[in-house]
Design brief:
heterotrimer; A alpha/beta (288); B alpha+beta (435); C mainly alpha (270); A: 288 residues; alpha/beta; Rossmann fold; 2 domains; two-stranded antiparallel ribbon; 15% strand; globular; C: 270 residues; mainly alpha; MetI-like fold; 75% helix; 0% strand; elongated
């Protein structure tokens, strides 16, 4: 990911996108096996101690979830949520912390008088805004948003996306947007990564992905999106594979209309078919 | 064998389903003492006067965001929820108060499919048993055959296998004995559909039938729905929040907001040229999966208010970008505006001390009051007038009088104009812009 | 893991309870069958007690007694509590409020005390003690069943069944009962463990069972008390050990079952 860019991570149920977000933040369950590298500003996060990771979380990388209610403590006032977070990372006076909390809320369009309310006194959209404010109060350089608007109505969703865009610019932040909603990806992302069954199948600029998808799964996914100008319905045969015993070779081959024997035998490598546009398909160049 | 085998033919060619001013109000849970002390009944106005008709063989889309009451309308149609007022007619018959055996008989003709396929199936029942269950429930329809007999069981099994094949649950023999936990989301929804259709109903209520399914699977289920409709002459009430899907599927469409229908008519007309500001907002907000066609959106302010105390007049007025002065401005709108004004960090001056704190203001109906002290009252009245110059024009124009009585500042609004269902270019809208 | 240990223990005890008394003659449990207070030896594996009874024989016969009480108590409580809880949770309204009031009152009463009161009224005997214990545990089954019923009642598939036209009775039996039953084994095991302790407690206090019954752990413990100061450990250790082992075994079984059942319940929901 480049600094200041918005990268969309798309995929359907079970593709691993949520796990990816949690892995970057180092909050996977204890017994998870993590291999490979996560380089953040040159540092490999997989090698970090718990202490170091805790410093990075919040200060440099923040995460917001789909359902804010599960992340907010129903017994704590909003103000206390902010104070707790600020004090955990920086040693500032309570007054200063309170000021920053108020500023954060106001920047999200919430009256500062409500800082003493409890989470359940807010609507879903406002809770998500509070979540974003909490994530940004420490001014991280990377914000990971895991399905931030999935449980919200379309109008509120648009409002939240607007806010995210504005804040991104104001704080010069990078945004990793994890979602299954291709519509919002087209709206806000610079680049897109497509995941299938735990594998990265395509990566490129948002234009490349939407106008020139190289991987059959991406193509299928795009054609199955229903929008206002849809004339015909399309879907992909079959369903995502069981990740305990995934298909051999290319994991998409059982559902792919272009599959050949090589797809069953050999795992397709991620190839740069054109500058900045990668795909993991043996026949990627067919679709250029 | 009587009854099943022939789908019941609609009595009239006209409307399969008709709702007349349907209201469904739910009591709000509150402590006993509070209930004793309240002066008026506190209810959630989930559905507050909804009327429409669906012709046989048509698909009506009921579209709105969460909390607008669309799911409640669906449940009311299948009588899972009791209407508080209004009438529901099915195939010419008034079913609003039906009970007992007649209601059970009705259930054969109207069915519902819910949003969550995972939760719709009894985890303890195999697929075969689940799909055949309606046949057992209504076994009395099938004549003098003993329900426990083997022939009957076999007959049910055959019907189930046929139904499974029809919805694409193949290989039927294999899937027959599986449990819901072994199936994918799309398959489960097919089971639900097979179960709903095995009694050969005339009307199917689909409550967000595909929202919880992955996008690559939705198309198949939607296609199945259309296919079944064609084959069996079904009528659908298609409830969804997704305008794009509704556009594809529906003949007629009704947009709901906070318990009322704001626009209803042929889908083609409404999508081509939406009239109601809420409809326009919804359509505008739908993202187009094309990065080259990003557009700046004009969004309504705020969020959907709670349905216990809906806004006066037109319920959308506090958020409407095209609001007029007669749309329903009332006391609490002024208090909300003042609250925003006082919290604005860029404001200068002593409005706070003259007009505040905001907690002291009380709003009831068209009036907003402030208990001030006798010395400040006059100044407060003047300040209100000054503050109103910074308010939206429609709100300021809606204020009838600003006066004082003893030590109270009173801001009174004009009564809003009566909203009427107006016919505009082929569809019906409930909006003062068109009256 | 735990449940296997628990299950194994329970099976072992049942085995002892059934076959033990066959192999060990009841005469060995009669007073003055042997010299008193003999320490453990080859003839008397667990020694003899203060009135000349073979401790081992007492312990074996005591197993049968305890299991009988447990069976009667826990089973009857289940048979009474489960349907009441199901009905109450499903139907709701005034019936529910009344039943909950009654059950909570009984539940609030200290178990042992209530059992003692009931025992005092209806007299001694295994069956009577079983009844007394039943009464104490009905509220537990009632409450758990009712809670499960309440939550299952709100499930979407129940609403779907209603939409299909299913009668209330069908819904209650095929839909709710089916999914509620799954918690019963857990409660059964845990309450059974408690039953053993309560029964032993009653006997310890001298209430409940007849004096000349062939096996009675609690009684034996009570009798053994006065010898503790004199360094006579075998009359109290062995009955006490049996109580502890059976109780722990049942608890393990209950906990283990709970670990199995809970994820199943969660899986259903999501």
């Amino acid at each position: 990911m480049q600094e200041g860019e918005t990268l969309g991570v798309v995929g359907e149920t079970g593709c691993g996108k949520s796990t990816l977000g949690k892995a970057i933040l180092g909050i996977l369950p204890a017994r998870t096996l993590v291999a490979g590298k996560i380089l953040f500003r040159g540092r490999d996060l997989t090698q970090l101690s718990n202490l170091m990771y805790r410093r990075i979380r919040g200060e440099e990388i923040a995460l917001i979830f789909q359902d804010p209610m599960t992340r907010l403590n129903p017994l704590m006032r909003i103000q206390d949520h902010f104070l707790e977070e600020i004090h955990a990372h920086e040693s500032v006076s309570s007054t200063e912390a309170r000021t920053r909390a108020r500023e954060a809320l106001v920047s999200m369009g919430i009256h500062e008088t409500r800082i003493r309310n409890y989470p359940h006194e807010f609507s879903g959209g406002m809770r998500q805004r509070i979540m974003i404010a909490l994530a940004l109060v420490l001014k991280p350089s990377l914000l990971i948003a895991d399905e931030p608007t999935t449980s919200l109505d379309v109008i509120v969703e648009a409002q939240i996306l607007d806010i995210l865009q504005d804040l991104k610019e104001a704080y010069h932040m990078s945004l990793l947007l994890i979602t299954h909603n291709l519509g919002i990806v087209a709206e806000v992302c610079d680049r897109v990564a497509v995941l299938y069954a735990g594998k990265l199948v395509e990566l490129g600029s948002v234009r490349d992905i939407f106008h020139k998808p190289l991987h059959p799964y991406t193509q299928g996914l795009l054609s199955s999106v229903i929008h206002l100008e849809t004339k015909e319905l399309h879907s992909i045969e079959g369903s995502p594979p069981d990740l305990i015993a995934p298909p051999s070779g290319c994991r998409f081959h059982p559902r792919c209309s272009y599959a050949e024997p090589i797809c069953t035998d050999k795992i397709p490598p991620l190839v740069e078919f054109e500058p900045g546009h990668f795909a993991a398909c043996h026949f990627g160049d067919k679709f250029l | 064998m009587t009854g099943l085998g022939n789908r019941a033919q609609p009595a009239s060619n006209d409307e399969m389903l008709r709702l007349e001013d349907l209201k469904v109000h739910f009591p709000v849970k509150m402590p006993f003492v509070q209930r004793l002390l309240q002066r008026e009944e506190t209810v959630v106005h989930a559905v507050d006067g909804v009327s429409f008709g669906i012709r046989a063989g048509e698909i009506l889309g009921l579209v709105g965001e969460s909390g607008c009451g669309k799911s409640t309308v669906g449940r009311a149609c299948v009588r899972l929820v009791k209407p508080t007022a209004g009438r529901i007619f099915f195939d010419g018959q008034d079913i609003t108060e039906l009970g007992g055996g007649k209601l059970r008989a009705l259930r054969r003709r109207i069915q519902i499919i819910f949003q969550d396929p995972h939760a719709s199936l009894n985890p303890a029942m195999t697929i075969g048993k689940a799909i055949g269950h309606p046949l057992r429930i209504h076994s009395s329809v099938f004549g003098p055959q003993k329900t426990g007999s083997e022939a009957f069981g076999e007959w049910i099994r055959q019907k189930v296998l046929t139904a499974m094949k029809e919805v694409g649950l193949t290989p039927e023999e294999q899937l027959y004995d599986k449990y819901p936990g072994d199936l994918s989301g799309g398959q489960k929804q097919r089971v639900v559909m097979a179960r709903a259709l095995i009694l050969e109903p005339n009307l199917l209520v689909v409550d967000e039938g595909v929202s919880m399914l992955d996008m690559s699977v939705r198309a198949k289920v939607l296609e199945l729905m259309l296919d079944l409709k064609r084959r069996h002459g079904l009528t659908y009430l298609f409830i969804t929040h997704d305008l794009a899907t509704a556009k594809f599927m529906c003949d007629q469409i009704a947009i709901m907001y906070l318990g009322r229908i704001v626009e209803i008519g042929p889908a083609s007309e409404i999508y081509a040229d939406p009239k109601h500001p809420y409809t326009k907002a919804l359509l505008q907000v739908i993202p187009i999966p094309d990065p080259d066609r990003r557009s700046k959106k004009v969004l309504p302010r705020g969020e959907v208010p709670d349905a216990v105390h809906p806004p006066a007049g037109c319920r959308f007025h506090p958020r409407c970008p095209a609001v007029l002065s007669s749309c329903g401005w009332e006391g609490r709108d002024f208090v909300d505006f003042l609250d925003e004004h006082l919290s604005d960090p860029k404001r200068v001056g002593d409005d706070e001390s003259v007009l505040g704190p905001i907690e002291d203001w009380r709003a009831k109906g068209l009036v907003a009051r402030l208990e001030s002290d006798p010395l400040k009252v006059g100044k407060a009245v003047e300040r209100v007038k000054a503050v109103l110059t910074e308010a939206p024009v429609s709100l300021a124009e809606a204020v009838e009088t600003i006066s004082s009585q003893n030590r109270t500042v009173i801001v009174r609004f004009r009564s809003p104009d009566q909203l009427l269902q107006t016919k505009v270019q082929g569809r019906t809208v409930e909006c003062l812009l068109y009256q | 893991m735990l449940s296997w240990i628990g299950l194994g223990t329970l099976i072992a005890f049942i085995f002892i309870g059934i076959f033990g008394p066959v192999l060990v003659s009841v005469d060995q449990t009669k007073a003055l069958a042997y010299p008193i207070l003999l320490p453990p030896s080859l003839q008397h594996w667990m020694g003899t007690d203060g009135i000349g009874r073979d401790v081992f024989a007492r312990v074996i016969w005591g197993t049968r007694t305890s299991l009988e009480i447990m069976a009667i108590g826990a089973l009857l409580a289940l048979i009474a509590g489960f349907p009441l809880g199901l009905l109450s949770g499903f139907v709701g309204g005034k019936l529910d409020r009344l039943l909950v009031l009654v059950m909570d009152s009984v539940y609030a009463f200290p178990g042992l005390l209530l059992a003692a009161l009931i025992a005092a009224v209806i007299g001694r005997g295994i069956f009577n003690i079983g009844i007394a214990i039943t009464v104490i545990y009905i509220p537990l089954y009632f409450r758990v069943t009712r809670n499960q019923t309440l939550s299952t009642r709100e499930e979407l598939y129940v609403e779907a069944a209603r939409a299909l036209g299913a009668r209330s009775r069908t819904i209650m039996l095929s839909y709710i009962a089916y999914n509620v039953v799954i918690v019963i084994p857990v409660i059964f095991s845990l309450s059974a463990a408690d039953t053993i302790l309560t029964a032993a407690g009653l006997s310890y206090l001298g209430l409940g069972l007849e004096i000349d019954i062939p096996g009675d752990w609690g009684r034996d413990l009570s009798d053994a008390q006065r010898f503790l100061g004199s360094g006579i450990w075998w009359t109290s250790l062995f009955p006490g050990l049996m109580i502890i082992l059976l109780t722990i075994g049942l608890s393990f079984l209950g906990e283990g079952l709970n670990d199995i059942v809970n994820p199943l319940l969660k899986k259903e929901r999501g």
